[in-house]
């Protein structure tokens, strides 16, 4: 199955795990996606390999950042009509709390959907969404929109 | 490519420090060298790290982690001894996709150091930093003993 078919399948069945499995880096991180109605959550299950500092221990900033970028891209595939994988233009991460050795969740909010660019805000949390461990925002190029 | 200081005990220690972080190890980061206060890491191309299965281009998250690691090590280069710190923020601009099949280098420099904070910048590239794949700027905060504001939660690394 090619990429376009996989995206169409995921949308048709609202079943996103096969699409996650099709992206090697998402599979490497062990991501999963939970869609309930209009609520989209991306989950990074805890694994020892995600640790940056083993003494604290705390998640690697790069692991949290990569997870948030994955969440944003899957969110756009879920929300948008295009089957093209959007391209990240820029990505900005604020680290608010130490990432503990436990599962991390990401919620995505579309700040602005333009014809060519989508601006997203992504929140990562572990215990409750009210206590985010990181906040990211970024601009994404919607590729099929470019003529 | 740049192996100017590889003989010094500090560089040896620095090189050994990289895989002490499980995520650096999982990503396969390698200490490539140090040029003045610039520190250079590389990530060998691996199928597992691909973000776009149609093209084989590495995921942006790989570049983020590479530059986060390089920036952190660049701060250590300027300290008399390593001390715990946390990434406060990191911004990346993706200028062009990495070429499939090729290793990516990440170089970073700490260009301002204060008692509490370290300001860093870096870029990811294949052949020369003049043709960057991504540019990064970030701020790190020292945490724990010796830091001025231990009450503040932090600790990404």
What does this structure look like?
The complex is a heterodimer of chains A (147) and B (157). Chain A has 147 residues and is an alpha+beta fold. Chain A has a single domain, classed as Hotdog Thioesterase (Thiol Ester Dehydrase, Chain A, Roll), CATH 3.10.129. Chain A has four helices and eight strands; from the N terminus they run H-H-H-E-E-E-E-H-E-E-E-E. In chain A, strand 6 and strand 7 form a beta hairpin. The mean pLDDT of chain A is 95. Chain B has 157 residues and is of the alpha+beta class. Chain B has a single domain, classed as Roll (Thiol Ester Dehydrase, Chain A). In chain B, 21% of the residues lie in helices and 35% in strands. In chain B, strand 7 and strand 8 form a beta hairpin. Classes of the chains: A alpha+beta (147), B alpha+beta (157).
Present the secondary structure layout.
The complex is a heterodimer of chains A (147) and B (157).
Chain A: H1 3-13, H2 17-22, H3 24-29, E1 32-36, E2 39-44, E3 51-53, E4 58-59, H4 61-79, E5 87-95, E6 104-113, E7 117-125, E8 132-141
Antiparallel strand pairs in A: 1-2, 2-6, 3-4, 5-8, 6-7, 7-8
Chain B: H1 9-17, H2 22-27, E1 30-35, E2 38-43, E3 50-52, E4 57-58, H3 60-77, E5 85-94, E6 104-113, E7 117-125, E8 134-142
Antiparallel strand pairs in B: 1-2, 2-6, 3-4, 5-8, 6-7, 7-8
In short:
By secondary structure, chain A is α+β, with helices and mostly antiparallel strands. In chain A, 29% of the residues lie in helices and 37% in strands.
């Amino acid at each position: 199955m090619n990429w376009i078919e996989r995206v169409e399948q995921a949308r048709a069945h609202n079943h996103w795990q096969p699409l996650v499995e099709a992206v090697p880096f998402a599979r490497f991180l062990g991501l999963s996606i939970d869609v309930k109605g209009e609520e989209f959550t991306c989950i990074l299950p805890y694994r020892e390999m995600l640790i940056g500092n083993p003494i604290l221990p705390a998640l690697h900033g790069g692991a949290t950042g990569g997870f948030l970028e994955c969440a944003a891209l899957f969110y756009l595939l879920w929300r948008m009509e295009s089957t093209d994988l959007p391209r990240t233009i820029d990505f900005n991460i604020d680290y608010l709390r130490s990432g503990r050795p436990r599962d991390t969740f990401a919620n995505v909010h579309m700040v602005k959907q333009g014809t060519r660019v989508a601006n997203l805000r992504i929140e990562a949390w572990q215990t409750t969404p009210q206590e985010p461990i990181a906040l990211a925002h970024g601009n994404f190029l919607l590729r099929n929109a470019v003529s | 490519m740049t192996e100017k200081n590889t003989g010094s005990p500090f560089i040896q220690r620095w090189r050994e420090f990289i895989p002490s972080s499980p995520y650096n190890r999982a990503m396969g980061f390698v200490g490539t060298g140090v040029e003045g206060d610039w520190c250079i890491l590389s990530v060998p191309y691996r199928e597992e790290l691909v973000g776009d299965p149609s093209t084989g281009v590495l995921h942006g998250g790989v570049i983020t982690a590479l530059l986060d690691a390089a920036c952190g090590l660049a701060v250590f280069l300027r300290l008399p001894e390593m001390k715990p710190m946390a990434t406060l923020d990191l911004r990346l601009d993706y200028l062009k996709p990495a070429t499939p099949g090729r290793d990516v280098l990440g170089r970073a420099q700490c260009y301002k150091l204060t008692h509490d904070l370290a300001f860093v910048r870096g870029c990811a590239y294949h052949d020369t930093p003049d043709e960057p794949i991504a540019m990064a700027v970030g701020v790190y905060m020292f945490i724990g003993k010796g830091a001025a504001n231990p009450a503040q939660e932090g600790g990404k690394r």
